[in-house]
Amino acid sequence: MSLTDRLRRALDRPAPKGLLAGDLVDGEEHITAPVPAAVLVAITERAEPGVLLTVRREHMRTHAGQVAFPGGRIDAEDADPAAAALREAEEEIGLPPAAVRLWGEADPYRTITGYRVTPILGSVAPDLPLVPHEAEVADWFEAPLAFLLDPANQRAVEAEFRGRMRTYYEIPWEGRRIWGATAAMIVNLSRRLHAWS
Predict the structure, then answer these.
(1) 73 and 36 in contact (C-beta within 8 Å)?
(2) Among positive and negative, which fits the CA dihedral 85, 91, 92, 97?
(3) Would you say the pTM of this structure is higher than 0.85?
(4) What is the pLDDT of residue 27?
(5) CA-to-CA distance for 177 and 171, rounded, in angstroms?
(6) Which of helix, strand or coil describes residue 121?
(7) pLDDT of residue 164
(8) Nearest to 118 by CA among 110, 128, 126
(9) Where would one find the signal peptide in this protein (predicted)?
(10) 106-144 tens-digit pLDDT
(11) What pLDDT score was predicted for residue 112?
(12) What are the b/e assignments for 35-67, b being 16+ CB within 10 Å?
């Protein structure tokens, strides 16, 4: 069975123990009500599938310069998280919604910036002519799915933030640093995959 088939099957199973719930630490959960958001985990249909990721512009108010999945806040006109993720992917990298074959939702993740992010998984044809949105996205790239999901490539790092020690994950790949919520959602996909393989 292929890696993508195994991942699709794992999405249909109950959530395993050990998933990362969010960036918050004890006592911070009720600081603010989370803002619903969604991201698109677009997996390319290759013999060795990849994942489309963006690099946010340096001037952005939040997560400047970070690697991220295409996505953002769920707007009132969005029917559901999938609709929001598809809309944002089209806005950010010119990915037409009709080009995505949706698989389903993965486990939500609560960010320290106040979002509750639902990852939406789907597959896309390889080598689509994507164009980053000039004001929001500096670049986009494709990283190998197998590399991202390999626990050996996922490093836990501790750092002080707002006066508290926090643990986050990072996945270095070809000079890129995938970290924070994006890496955490990848770690959750990896844990879900390995729990049901």
Answers:
(1) yes
(2) positive
(3) yes
(4) 52
(5) 6
(6) strand
(7) 75
(8) 110
(9) none
(10) 999 998 888 999 999 999 999 999 999 888 898 999 999
(11) 82
(12) ebbbbbbbbbeeeebbbbbbbbbeeeeeeeebb
Supply the angle between the helices 180-195 and 3-11 in degrees, to the nearest 10: 90
Where along the chain do its domains lie?
Answer: 3-195
Sequence-ordered list of residues with C-beta below 8 angstroms from that of 36, at least 6 positions apart, any chain: 73, 74, 81, 115, 116, 118
Distance CA 57, CA 155 (A): 25
**Tens digits of pLDDT across the chain (197 residues):** 899 999 999 999 999 999 999 876 555 555 578 899 999 999 999 999 999 999 977 654 555 458 999 999 999 999 999 999 999 999 999 999 999 999 999 999 998 888 999 999 999 999 999 999 888 898 999 999 999 999 999 999 987 766 777 889 999 999 999 999 999 999 999 999 999 87
CB 48 within 8 A of CB 3: no
Alpha-carbon distance of 16 to 14, in angstroms, equals 6
Query: Which one-letter amino acid corresponds to residue 34?
Result: P
Burial (Cβ within 10 Å: 0-12, 13-18, ≥19) of residue 17: exposed
CATH of domain 3-195: 3.90.79.10
Q: Which two tokens stand for residue 147?
A: 């590399």
What's the chain's length in residues?
Answer: 197
